[in-house]
Amino acid sequence: MVGHAGPSEAGVLPAAHEEAHGHGSLAALSLAALGIVYGDIGTSPLYAMRECFHGPHAVAAGVGNVLGVLSLIVWSLILVVTVKYLVYVLRADYGGEGGILALTALAVPGHAKAQPSRFRRALVLIGLFGAALLYGDGVLTPAISVLSATEGLKVVAPSLERFVVPMTIVILFGLFWFQHRGTRGVGSVFGPVTIVWFLTLAALGVSQVVQEPRVLAAVSPGYAAQFFMHNGKAGFIVLGSVFLVVTGAEAIYADLGHFGKRPIRLTWFGLVLPCLLIHYFGQGALVLREPSAVPDLFFRMAPEWAVVPLVILSTVATVIASQAVISGAFSLSRQAVMMGYLPRLKIEHTSAREIGQIYIPSVNWALMLATIAMVLSFGSSSSLAAAYGIAVTSTMAITTILAYQVTHRRWKWPLGLSIGVTAVFLVADFSFLGANLFKIADGGWVPLAMGAVVLVLMTTWKRGRTLLANRTSQRTIQLSEFMQKVRGNGLETIGRVPGTAVYMSSTPDLVPLALMYTTRHHHVLHERVVILTIRTDEAPHVPAAERAWVEPLGNEFWRLAAVYGFMEDPDVPSLLRHVAELEPRLDIDPRQATFFLGQETILAGEAPGGMAEWREHLFSFMARNATKATKFFGLPVDRVVEVGTYIEM
Known about the structure:
Layout: E1 2-3, H1 15-23, H2 26-42, H3 48-54, H4 63-88, H5 100-107, H6 118-150, H7 153-156, H8 164-177, H9 184-209, H10 222-242, H11 249-254, H12 256-259, H13 261-289, H14 297-300, H15 307-338, E2 348-349, E3 358-359, H16 361-378, H17 381-387, H18 390-410, H19 415-437, H20 445-473, H21 479-487, E4 495-504, H22 513-522, E5 524-536, E6 548-554, E7 557-564, H23 572-582, E8 594-603, H24 613-624, H25 629-632, E9 640-648
Parallel strand pairs: 4-5, 4-8, 5-7, 8-9
Antiparallel strand pairs: 1-6, 2-3, 6-7
Helix pairs in contact: 2-9, 2-13, 2-15, 3-10, 4-10, 4-13, 5-6, 5-18, 6-8, 6-15, 6-16, 6-17, 6-18, 6-20, 8-15, 8-16, 9-13, 9-15, 10-19, 18-19, 20-24
């Protein structure tokens, strides 16, 4: 046996990430993180506070309510973003990576390899639902962000209102169309533009606070308590609008692997948090002075001459925020594919230097159509705000639950400490979630429905692949039994021809169906046969030294197993070059070898132990539309032979 394959140690930054973070200065990484990580949360001032006093569940803009809402905003930013994400959740990195799927793998280790208990299956299921809900966020964030920016045209001239929706659609179409070009060029200006944006927020805030400095008293949590006492149920429902100030906090954890903890924290404490606080205080000051400004609160903060430049700047800022969410959807989709929860998708790398910059056409166009549909259906950012937030609050609550599992089971915190910390965050999470539930009838059902659809797709694909593997195993034999026949001349009627054949197999202990059919029907084998199995590890990255495992089986048969992290893309030609360094006798030129792939045609049936018939048809549809294994594994297209078979589910 040559080489070794195994998971990398959790919590240890992989070499690739150390190198990436090491070569980039702290200042450069912080600048890059500013636009990507905080683009979404940084554009919340366009609509968040306005909805507290203007939306369908608004409260009156009196002094007590303004100070109460401001206090809720301040402490939401401190408790949810600063304490929960920056201090607590950010510690739960898995091999340097973050995000809901990484947290699920960290909280439920080994769930993909063994038959998990009901509790562990439930944890995996809620983790998947949290990931599925993020697709709804990927649809609503570009819609509400860009729409809220273009609505500034109404402040410039009321007659321009009819152009708001068409212009929003044009901008969104351009944004999604540009994705195939990659974000590297745009990314170089993300940070500087976002600095200008946050400094502008602070300047607008200061200009208002100096006229109403009493709003600074809202830093006291007592005003938040009084707000609830005076407003009762109406005050609780307003929490759904207050929550809009922290939407985007999930990006802090999801983008951990791209930038590291220090740049993310430095940027938040050094620029983002102070600018946001100052700006929200400024909005509160304007509401106190001019309650009539609430419908156009953000743009009314600027002097008349600055409104047009502010509309342009806010539009650019929302495009940046939307770009970050779209890129996050691509990354999430790749993770789901590699972990076996979605079929193979066409993944294009848009940068030769940055591995994280990918483009997935099917996800991109699906998001675009859904986003434009949201703009056309709701028509205004205020209406969209009614649908926005419930998906994110659900994901945040799920993050807290999974984080508890990590602290208690993996980090070995005392039970009392884990429960206490979790309880504090769950009170905030469930309060926001409860307030957002009142939005369901006003459109909050939309992201929930999107999440439910994605969850059904994920679970159907995972279950279908398991059933398919079981059905396939019934048609083949153990590899050890096959090799006994080879060594005992049990295959004396099989001829050997020059060359190397690589048979792709999902199970290393079984004979691939393509190999079974080759020997059974053609009675011929190549002089060298390699059975290649590629699996995905629960860790995000696998060190090169642990990539491959080679075993000679005799008679020029070889078993080759390779493992990739769920943030890595399998590349068979590169793998074979790597294996040649480990085992010189297995020096294979991909351009001369022949690759045999099994091509299953799924038939919905009534075989025992299967899925519901509609799910079997859905699985069959997904399988037919999956990206071909040839492209997914980087195989030379002119060296591939596909062997088809029909399998009844």
